[in-house]
């Protein structure tokens, strides 16, 4: 049986997500839900000297949505607002080297959409 | 019922998925199609296709006859008094929207009450919410008990508010609960309400007699009962349908059009604007013929056996919570469940890797999931072609889920 999706790295992030929680006074905060399953992710970001100095995500959902949110929080650290704005869906989907079927892409994209929501706010 | 013979009629059941034979357990979302339906639709397009109710030539006459024959087949299937009471739509959702936007707009006013149950699919919630907002009406909710059945005390309390409309599902698409719609209708009528029954999950699975139920409107979808997609049905009592304004405007629904206005065609055409999905409805008639040959009583007996088996097998899985009533007399073969430490999406994805198709999510019933206290569930469901082996495959598949997400 191929268990390509459920690789160790993803399961590890899903079980022990990095930067899980909330920030007291975030500079940016955004929330997105997936209407098909009720999953939700809130991303919060703080800047120091125009670079991300602190980041947190909160929410609940499947292993894909949680693992990608966890990876995204790692990625955003030290980035400028412009760099956050420039993060594309395709780039985001490569944060973990795990093949996604079309039906799971929205799970992985939830955290990116929450970040984009934050950037728009 | 010879399920092995039935399975041979469904070409898709021979498919492999990720190297495994397909185990299709999502018939509540949509059913698969037997070759008898596929061949009927194919033959229609190859040999009889022309627009209905228009042409004065052989093909159009054949197409019209086939389309109107399917209306008679549908009428007989639910024992409606007249073919004029059978309106063809896209699906049950459109049928409900039709009632909300025509009967509803004419009859629901400020301060009126619409009574729904917590079982309802979004298609039997959102059209009424939109109507209520437009008219200043209110929606009251009848509770579902912890056991997963309609709360009679809550229903009585709802009726005491003198609802203008009561709209309930015949069978829950999440819990499989079969509601006592005939009793509901009698009580609701006594309280002065018009009654809509959402039969999307009942018409495919057991005999339905709209006159015995007594409801004013009954809706269902062909695609959940072996027919092509885009084949919805609205049954309505003639007196109500006649008093209702048309739904959409266009060809076929008019008698005469002038620069100043138009007059409406007779029932049922008043509600069927534009070229209908007649090839699809020819397929619906073939599907009903197929189901009737099996016998709706036999189909229900087969499913009750699967319900009992599925409830027993799933209840024995450690760390699994199965929702819905345990009494198989009032439950169809729908199995919604959750497992500790695993999200429903992950359950469905790991099962998919083994060729097993189940649904994960809120199944268009967020109000009910809020009641259950979970954002989403996994759901397996059965139909005429489902076997105990399919349920065994599911149970085995759940062992793989546990290997990846230990309890």
Strand content of chain B: 15-25%
- Give the overall silhouette of chain B: globular
Query: What integer value in Å does the Rg of chain A equal?
Result: 14 Å
Q: How many helices of chain A does DSSP assign?
A: 5
Note poorly predicted spans of chain A: none
Q: What's the total number of strands of chain B?
A: 17
Mean pLDDT of chain A: 92
Distance between the termini of chain A: 44 Å
Structural class of chain A: alpha+beta
Name the strands of the widest sheet of chain A in spatial order: 1-2-3
Query: Pairing-aware structural class of the strands and helices of chain B?
Result: alpha/beta
Q: Describe the strand arrangement of the main beta sheet of chain B, using strand numbers.
A: 4-10-9-8-7-5-6
Question: Biggest interface pair, residues each?
Answer: A-B, 19 and 21 residues
Fraction of helical residues of chain A? 40-55%
Compute the gyration radius of chain B: what is it?
22 Å
Describe what is shown at a glance:
The complex is a heterodimer of chains A (121) and B (407). Chain A is α+β, with helices and mostly antiparallel strands and 121 residues long.
Fold and architecture overview:
The complex is a heterodimer of chains A (121) and B (407). In chain A, helix 1 crosses helix 2 (63-76) and helix 2 (63-76) packs across helix 5 (105-120). Chain A is α+β, with helices and mostly antiparallel strands. The longest helix of chain A is centred in the last third of the chain and has 16 residues, at 105-120. In chain A, 40% of the residues lie in helices and 21% in strands. The mean pLDDT of chain A is 92. Chain A has helices at 8-15, 63-76, 81-86, 89-93, 105-120; strands at 28-33, 40-48, 51-60. Chain B is an alpha/beta fold. Helices cover 40% and strands 17% of the residues of chain B. In chain B, helix 2 (35-47) packs antiparallel against helix 10, helix 3 (58-78) crosses helix 10 (278-294) and helix 12 (344-352) packs across helix 14. Chain B is globular, with a radius of gyration of 22 Å. In chain B, 51% of the residues are buried. Chains A and B meet through helix 2 of A and helix 12 of B.
């Amino acid at each position: 049986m191929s268990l390509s999706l459920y690789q160790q790295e993803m399961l590890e992030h899903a079980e022990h997500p990095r930067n899980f929680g909330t920030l007291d006074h975030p500079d940016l905060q955004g929330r997105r839900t997936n209407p098909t399953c009720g999953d939700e992710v809130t991303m919060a970001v703080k800047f120091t000297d125009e670079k991300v100095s602190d980041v947190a995500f909160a929410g609940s959902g499947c292993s894909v949505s949680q693992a990608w949110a966890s990876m995204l929080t790692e990625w955003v650290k030290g980035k400028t607002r412009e760099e956050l704005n420039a993060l594309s869906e395709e780039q985001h989907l490569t944060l973990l080297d795990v093949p996604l079927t079309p039906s799971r892409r929205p799970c992985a994209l939830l955290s990116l959409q929450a970040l984009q929501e934050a950037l728009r706010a | 019922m010879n399920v092995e013979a039935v399975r041979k009629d469904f070409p898709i059941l021979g498919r492999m998925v990720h190297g495994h034979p397909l185990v299709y357990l999502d018939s509540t979302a949509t059913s698969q199609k037997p070759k008898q339906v596929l061949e009927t639709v194919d033959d229609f397009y190859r040999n009889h296709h022309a627009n209905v109710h228009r042409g004065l030539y052989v093909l159009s006459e054949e197409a019209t006859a086939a389309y109107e024959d399917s209306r008679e087949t549908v009428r007989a299937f639910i024992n409606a008094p007249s073919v004029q009471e059978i309106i063809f739509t896209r699906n049950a959702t459109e049928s409900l929207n039709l009632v909300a936007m025509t009967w509803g707009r004419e009859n629901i006013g400020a301060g009126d009450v619409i009574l729904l149950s917590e079982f309802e699919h979004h298609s039997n919630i959102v059209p009424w919410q939109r109507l209520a907002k437009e008219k200043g009406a209110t929606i009251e909710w009848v509770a579902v008990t912890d056991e997963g059945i309609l709360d009679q005390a809550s229903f009585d309390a709802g009726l005491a508010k003198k609802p203008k409309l009561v709209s309930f599902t015949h069978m829950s698409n999440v819990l499989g609960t079969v509601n006592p719609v005939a009793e509901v209708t009698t009580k609701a009528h006594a309280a002065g309400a018009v009654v809509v029954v959402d039969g999307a999950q009942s018409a495919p699975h057991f005999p339905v007699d709209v006159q015995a139920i007594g409801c004013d409107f009954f809706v269902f979808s062909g695609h959940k009962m072996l027919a092509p997609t885009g084949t919805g049905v609205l049954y309505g009592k003639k007196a109500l349908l006649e008093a209702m304004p048309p739904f959409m405007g266009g060809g076929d629904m008019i008698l005469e059009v002038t620069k100043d206005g138009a007059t409406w065609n007779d029932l049922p055409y008043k509600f069927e604007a534009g070229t209908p999905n007649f090839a699809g409805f020819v397929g619906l008639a073939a599907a009903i013929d197929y189901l009737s040959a099996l016998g709706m009583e036999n189909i229900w007996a087969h499913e009750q056996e699967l319900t009992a088996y599925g409830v027993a097998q799933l209840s024995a899985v450690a760390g699994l919570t199965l929702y819905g009533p345990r009494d198989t007399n009032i439950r169809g073969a729908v199995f919604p469940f959750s497992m500790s430490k695993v999200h429903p999406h992950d359950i469905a994805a790991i099962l998919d890797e083994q060729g097993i198709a189940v649904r994960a999510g809120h199944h268009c019933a967020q109000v009910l999931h809020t009641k259950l206290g979970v954002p989403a569930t996994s759901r397996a469901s059965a139909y005429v072609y489902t076997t105990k082996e399919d349920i065994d495959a599911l149970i085995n598949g759940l062992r793989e889920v546990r290997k990846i997400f230990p309890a």
